[in-house]
Design goal:
148 residues; mainly alpha; Four Helix Bundle (Hemerythrin (Met), subunit A)
Length: 148
């Protein structure tokens, strides 16, 4: 009986392993813009956790600098979603994307000023506004991810 169960478990593992390997290989294409957004997102998440703590303002300013650098570099790039739009809408789409990114860079500048002035409560509020802008921007400009 134990041998049958072992063989059954082994057979199931052999069937499932190739399926899992295919899923891992089917990762979405990563773009330069996606990489910049990932770096900015990591700094943003860390900032949201530590923004209220004024003892971490030096580290917070470093994370703000990372966000600024990635956001400014993102201004020069175009979202991959552009390719899914009709040619007549693509230019307006990119223009809107860049306008929203410029607004986000402005929020980053306000955040930087708040940390430099040790106004952590204000920084927390700015981060909340930035989170709302991030959600709206992702909804408008990020390509929908396929559900498995």
């Amino acid at each position: 009986m134990k041998i049958r169960l072992s063989l059954l478990a082994l057979a199931c593992a052999l069937v499932v392993a190739p399926i899992q390997a295919q899923d891992k290989g089917a990762k979405e294409v990563e773009t330069e813009l996606g990489e910049k957004m990932d770096k900015m997102g990591a700094a943003f998440r860390a900032l949201r956790r530590q923004a209220a703590d004024s003892t971490k303002n030096a580290d917070s300013l470093a994370k703000v600098a990372t966000m600024r650098e990635q956001a400014q570099a993102s201004l020069k790039l175009e979202p991959i979603k552009k390719a899914d739009l009709p040619a007549a809408e693509q230019a307006a789409f990119v223009t809107n994307y860049r306008a929203e990114m410029k607004k986000f860079v402005g929020m980053i500048e306000s955040l930087d000023a708040a940390f430099k002035a040790n106004k952590n409560e204000e920084a927390v509020k700015i981060l909340g506004t930035m989170a709302d802008a991030q959600k709206a921007g992702h909804k408008d400009f990020q390509k929908k991810k396929k559900k498995a």
